[in-house]
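Appendix B. Extra example for self-study. Work through it before the problem class; the solution is given directly after the inputs so you can check yourself.
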Amino acid sequence: MIEVEGLCFDYPAKRALSDVGFTIEPGTVTALVGPNGAGKTTLLRCLATLELPYAGRIRLDGIDTGEEPLRARRLLGFLDEFFGLYDELSVRRCLTYWAGAHGLAGDTEAAVLDAARRLGLADRLEERAGSLSRGLRQRLAIAQVIIHRPRILLMDEPASGLDPEARAGLADLIRSLQAEGMTIIVSSHILVELQDYSSHMLIVDKGRIVDHAPIGGASPRQRSRRLRLVLSRPADALASALGGEAGLVVAPDGLAAQFDFTGDLEAQTALLARLVGQGLPVAAFGEDHESLQDRYIEKLKASR
Amino acid sequence: MSLLLNPELRRNLWLELGPARVIAMPAVLFMVFLLAWTWGKAEGMAFAAAFTGWALLVLWGTRLACDAVISEVQGRTWDGQRLSSLGPLRMTIGKLAGGPIYAWYGGVICLVALLAAGGIADEPLVPIGLVVTGLFGQAVALWFGLVQLRLRSGVQRFHVTFAQVVGIIVSVQLTPFEHFIDVSVSWYGMTFNGFEFALLSTALFTVWAWIGCYRLMRAELQYRSWPLVWCAFLVFLLVYFDGLSGQYFGLFSPFARFSADEAFLWQAGGFLTIVSASWFAMLLEPKSIVRLRRLFERLRKGDAARALGDLPVFVAGLPVLAIAAVLLTLGKPEPGLLLAQAASLVLFLLRDGALVYYVVLAPGARRGHLAALVYLVLLYGVVPGILAGADAGVLLAAFVPLAMKAPVIGLLGPAVQAIAFGFLLSSRLTTVRG
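Solution. Structure tokens for the complete assembly:
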């Protein structure tokens, strides 16, 4: 869906992106991560056709963005970190405007209602955009960029400034958009949240790609999650109880274990019941949110 | 998609023509016209309508037109618009027609009042003049707003005021209280009075202002453009001035009625105008080291088509300047001296271009254009003053375009400087940190 070859982007005295190349498959959610100043925003802006690269080529669903920017833009939705809204317009008119601006022809009312419903704004259509809270403004901004149902969604720090509830809502939204087949790239520093919904991680550092791989090593629809089990006291049966799980690592003190789990939440519940049934003193059981961060740090260190 | 279905225009209608504003404008104007009527009856009302219309369309409309883009940048909605399916044409129309729509709402009421009052005695073209000057001033203001936007990444409110002032200044020839000297102008054999000629000229240049807005919008939306339109504009300027001089097309028709000297002055004026236009284009065009590097890379690869898109327009227009210089000398006494003078002007343009690019593209340069202008003032003003004071007047032609008096120095001087600054500029092309 997204093919990048030999992409170079220069600021007057600094090369921001250097020979960047990667391919992103349709229907994936890619976490774009890297230190501050690594080139993440520049890369997103190049993908969004907002910046012309010095060299290289970007193809979105086969369309060369340098040759046919207007066609490429029809495939795209881009949410900037510092987005703006038309504060004087109502939510309905904001959405109607962007429906027209993105080329939806004819009666745009259905698209407006659909976008508002998906973002939980259906009961706020007549409110002024300027009167919305930060979280609702974020939702409206997302509704605006997906109203034309783009096949590719680029989001730069979408969770910035959101409260925990709004962040959870954002994660749900990204999952639902992915389920509809949208290809999504999310740039963020909050790796724990990225792990909740990302299928791939693209690490950028100093304008170069450091790593680009699936998270958990599986396909996006059946990707594994890294689970962490903590016991209240050591148990000899821990390793044997989890012996069939991939990537099993048991702590030397026998109090914790981590492993890759490909099942859904129901399967996870069944596993927990089995472990408790086997007499293991389970104190905690859930996703290991530190693993993505560990891998990120490890890859960055290895690249330097 | 029709004009009225242009989403950008419709959004502006929503914002600008709310119920309260729709009622307020005619109410205020009614009071103004009533006051004028009590003072001067129909004639007073006509003058008030003309002046108020001009104030709305030019004084205010220029601000609204420029703000149609600048407010988007400041409101962080501009990138979203750039990514939309609105192409450069619909975006330009949406901004030009939609931004100042409220000023036009009031302006149309003023026009109706002006016509209803019987117009202004002996000046039947004033209503048309109002419309044309409004269109022209607003287009220039939007164009200049886009120029400022492309020259620097951040724009502020004073940039709107700056564009507004430029829009007003260039529209001054059609102000309703302007009293034209009783002159008649012959243009391509047609005779106009001063106001009529100003109206015709403004209308012609309005079309070019629209084209300028469209071209800048294309660039802003990352569309590749070739500089052929710029060359066409230079040719238009030559043709426009030829209507006064009759030197090119006049060779084939008998409309030229000037003496040879007068005609030559108009023709030389045309040449000076296209050189000046090229100079201002050089100054106002965004300067990007990345674009220059890409240009040379594409030239090295022989990719001429793409290289044209990166070529600075003042360079792209050089063939037109060269042809115009040769035409200027045809049939004139001492054509060699004339050609030297014309070539000297072009060499000074190249020198200034190299200098401005070198200064503006300095790493970490701030206010590069201002610094470059200071250096140019030194070169054009202070250095010649020193030379004159030091009895070295023979070298003057190396620093001011006086090649007719000293052809060799007048050509060698700017050529050597252009090469020197070009060499310095080339050093900018290689400084990249990884």
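Self-check: Chain B touches chain A at residues 1, 5, 7-8, 10-11, 14-15, 75-77, 79-87, 221-224, 288-290, 293-294, 297, 361, 363-364, 431-434 (CB under 8 Å). If your reasoning did not lead you there, revisit section 3.
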